[in-house]
Amino acid sequence: MSFLRISSPHARGKNSTKSVMQQVALATMPGFLALFYFFGWGVFINIIWCVLLAVTAETAVLLLRKRPLSFYLSDYSAVVTGILLGLALPPFAPWWVSAIATLFAIIVAKQLYGGMGMNPFNPAMVGYALVLISFPVAMTTNWSNPVNPTGTADFLTHLQWIFGFGSNAIDVFTAATPLDIYKHEIAASTEAVVRQSPAFGSFISYGWEWVNIGFLLGGLYLVLRKIISWHTPVALLVSLSILSLALGWDADQVTPLSIHLLSGGTMLGAFFIATDPVTGPSSPRGKLIFGAGIGVLIYIIRTYGNYPDAVAFAVLLMNFAAPFIDYYTQPRTYGHSRSKRGFGGNK
Amino acid sequence: MAETISTAAETEDTSQTNTDTSGKRPDYRDIAYNGLWKNNPALVQLLGLCPLLAVTASVVNAMGLGLATTIVLTGSNLSVSMIRNYVPESVRLPAFVMIIASLVTCAELLMQAYTYELYEILGIFIPLIVTNCAILGRADAFASKNGLLPSALDGFMMGSGFSIVLILLGAIRELVGQGTLFSGMDLLFGETAKTWQISLWSNNEDFLFMVLPPGAFFGMGLLIALKNIIDKQLASRKQKRISEPKKAGAKRVRVTG
Asked: For chain A, what percent of residues have pLDDT higher than 90?
């Protein structure tokens, strides 16, 4: 669409897709550094590997679809998908797991639906959910234990672990995430006993709290730069907190609020995944509903489901609902007495 | 959901078959082409999706169910065609369902007798052939309006078209999901078939996405896309063939006797 620009200094945003995506990539830095500090080189290798594959796959499909290469590649959306996947996957995920996730994310979840801006589901989360469902063992046991010094091994050793060559090739790491441990242990014991596990450390959950605080800082930067609006993350965190306080007040029975907020993928999901402008609703009121829905689903799936973390499933399920939410939350147009939303809207 | 699909497809089919059988002799080539390709129950009519998505985890499962469905479909079309002039319009559907149900019972007993392990694996999906909309759809749309031979052929071709898609999907899912092809064929073909298994790679873990029903949706989507691509290619080639000679003919005007 091209509207005529007539008189008046209409505000013109200098935000292009490219700069937005660059800012998002930049904002993952604090979270990435925390992950890197606690989990070692695996995160770094994963991100490089995923970005490499994402850009290659994007190029290949663009060539097949005869689209302008430089225009679509320079918007950095494939790079951001790769970075988010690299951050979300376990640090020791074997190379083929991250490869399948990335290729599926770019080729099927994004390009088959029409490419940038046309995908109904968040590509990174589609790839993540695919490998989580397909390879549950590889996806839940390849978290290095931040307390155990496997994370301090050097770059080459990590490379050998992930790509499975050389004498250092190992079968599997067994280190579950704190969310997983708490959920399974609490059924048979009390909070004080479960907290003895080294995975929880002295604060909330060793390593994970700093990772989540890192993503929170990055997210706040994005909100301040007006790259994302505050509605989705705030609604998500508030609804998750309310449910957790109302239903999970007894830490001897279920996972408490502190672990819900500062462990697993909560902050990454709230600020980087759920705020995807393509797959979420567009009005502020819609974003509030969307975020709240994700928060509720995260709590339900984490508490009553079989998977330890739920951010990917919650986001994908709410992506389904985004067009519906948009339909019912259309804001009032200036000059009209009431908004044209819902069934009465098209009269 | 399946019901609405079936009724939609049925009405479409009735209109087609009505024009087909207005006094003309049945075209057997056309019936075969319809069943296998143009009106394929799985790829075009999208009928019988429930067994299609549920049992196609391996080639042998798909083959077993495809075989049973083809037998039932041929038999039901034949029987329905035989009684077509004696069943009042108002009770035709219950009558057809009775015929189909008894044929399915036959197929079920046969499988129980000769391929017991496969019968166990397919479980509820053998009795559920009764509810396969493709069978009732063909009975109502074709067999109740056509003679014996065309009806039987139509049933066989529709069943074959359905089976081919089942087996293709089973092969894709088995290959990607478990890295094997033709595993467990001894369930259907006896002990000698044990050696037929081809293991392309031995992965420690199955690719569960393709083993579980979502993989069937995905594979189905790819197959439908492939069919549309082939149809498009064929259409454009035909277009070329039709348009080219005309041009040539217009250029060479013969003026001499």
From this structure: 41
Does residue A23 share a domain with residue A170? Answer: yes
Q: What is the DSSP letter of B180?
A: E
CB B136 within 8 A of CB B97: yes
Bridge partners (DSSP) of residue A1 are none
Residue B84, both tokens: 């077509």
Q: Which domain holds residue A39?
A: 16-175
Residue-wise over A106-116: b if at least 16 C-beta within 10 A, else e? bbbbbbeeebb
A23 and A167: one domain?
A: yes
pLDDT higher than threshold 90 for residue A159 = no
Residues A135 and A284 in one domain: no
Instruction: Count CB-CB contacts under 10 A for residue A320.
Output: 11
Rounded to two decimals, the ipTM of the complex is: 0.75
A130 touches chain B (CB under 8 A): yes
pLDDT digits (tens, 9 = 90+) for A30-60: 999 998 888 878 888 999 999 999 999 999 9
Section B95-120 average pLDDT: 91
Judge whether A75 and A25 are in contact, CB under 8 Å.
Answer: no
Residues A165 and A25 in one domain: yes
A31 shares a domain with A165: yes
| B226: chain A residues, CB-CB within 8 Å | none
A138 closest CB neighbour out of B205, B209, B218:
B205
pTM: 0.81
> What tokens appear for A301 in the block?
């799936």
Q: Which residue of B has its CA nearest to A137?
A: B205
User: Which residue, among A12, A48, B98, B110, has the nearest Cα to B118 in the 3D structure?
Assistant: B110
Residue of chain A nearest B210, judged by CA positions = A134
Tell me if A135 and B208 make a contact (CB, 8 A cut-off).
Answer: yes
Q: Which residue of B has its CA nearest to A136?
A: B208
Distance of CA A100 to the CA centre of its chain: 17
Residue A194 counted as domain residue: no
Number of domains in chain A: 2
A110 and A170 part of one domain:
yes
Residue A108: its chain B contacts at CB < 8 A?
Answer: 218
Residue B69 confidence class, pLDDT cut points 50, 70, 90: very high
CB within 8 Å: A133 and B205? no
